[in-house]
Amino acid sequence: MARATRPRVPSSRQRPSGRPRKIVEPAIAPSRVVSANVTRRLGGGGRARSLGKPNTVGCAARVRDSPAVSAPPAASQTPSGPVPARSNVTTMGWAAFWSGMAQEMIYPLLPIFLIVALSSSKTALGTVEGLLGVGVTIARLVSGRAMDRGRSPLLLTRISYGLSLAARPLIALAPTVGVVALLRVADGLGKGGKDAPKAVLVAADADGARMGRAFGIQTLLDTLGSVAGPLVAGLILLVAGHGESGLRICFALAAIPAIGAVRQLARAHDTLVPARHEHGPRASLGRPFRVLLVAVLLFGLANSSDTLLLLRARSAGLSAADLAFLFAAFNLVYALMAVPIGALSDRVGRRPLLFVAWTVYVGVYIGFAFASQAWTLVALFLAYGIFYAANDGVVKAWITSLVPPDRRGQAFALNAAASGLLLLPASVIAGGLWDRSGPRAAFLFGAATAALALAVVALAPALRGRRAGL
């Protein structure tokens, strides 16, 4: 008995004659496609290379065409879309350049604006800058926690940068010290929120053996922007005048480099951060990291706002434009030293470089306590740039070697929070000592407290040997 037959539909292996033949490889489960996408890296960097778009019906097959048909190459994929060719090391660096330029068109002029234009005291100045530190601390903790829960580092970075870039130019419209304080808190929320996710984005694209250099590049470009900002501000003041109106014009024009930062952020690409389950096992941060965090906390109590150093330089007779140019020179020293010091830390270790940085800080603060001539204060301010170049990037690179990758978000956030947690009391104490006893008492307090933190780094056994990533 004959069986009924159904029309046969050509499969992917059986094509009608005249059509190019396609060879279909065995289907791959979606989970394996995702795993392959995540684990295939470009030269050790953080950009994932896609194997193709997974289909939506439960399996994904890769199709190779015969020479008769050419298929367009699949775009690289990340959680936020196609991956640009540029590395986050450079993209985030240039974003920091433009953001730093916008920030430093305002920061060195804030002491004059608050003390002279808005008639505030040194204690009020310290309070305003301390409140910024509170905003920084809150945002750092929140962003680090969000990344440990698998949130997008790129999204957190963009939101944080946007808040800061919007708040800074608005200081031009501030009528009172209270409004300035609110805007500085908003700026602090943005500054703090970007630190940990930005560090994760950079670390994902950096070769482990050159981590110090990667963060040194961030410091270099950030600081080059911080050189350009005061130079532009000084030129604006020479044209617009050193009074309140000239200061407000300069603050408003800080919106222009902010646009450049936004353009760079649009080019950055995301990286996958594994979510840490609340009830699952989690790696320990380790004793060396905790001891380092204690030292950073002590140092935070010594590290009052740099606006007090600028105010001390102004007391020697420097004008507003002079302060802007001095701050540009300080940042130039910082920029020139950042990458060499970061690379040196890759060779000799993080601890010796951090020891040098904090020793310079103690020496500069002692000098500010006793110096009376303008040239001496200028020289000390330039030496202060060495501290900045050797501090931030070296600490971040050290943390990278101390903690496991899935805890880096929280570790970066805790470090950044520790450095900013005590900015408010440190600045209020320093400003109050200045108002009551003069600048010498304020700077000697900072030098003595920094010396205690230096002793922890020098003497703590947990910060020596292989366990400390040395």
UniProtKB/TrEMBL annotation:
Record-level GO cellular component terms: plasma membrane
Major location (coarse): membrane
Pfam families: MFS_1
Transmembrane segments: 95-118, 124-142, 220-240, 291-311, 323-341, 353-371, 377-399, 411-434, 440-463
This protein's UniProt keywords: Membrane, Transmembrane, Transmembrane helix
PROSITE patterns (alphabetical): MFS, SUGAR_TRANSPORT_1
Domain (Major facilitator superfamily (MFS) profile) ranges: 284-470
Record's subcellular location: Cell membrane
Region Disordered, residue ranges: 1-56
Keyword Transmembrane applies: yes
Topological category with respect to the lipid bilayer: Multi-pass membrane protein
Gene Ontology molecular function: transmembrane transporter activity
InterPro entries in the cross-refs: MFS, MFS_dom, MFS_trans_sf, Sugar_transporter_CS
Source superkingdom: Bacteria
Name listed for the protein in its UniProt record: MFS transporter
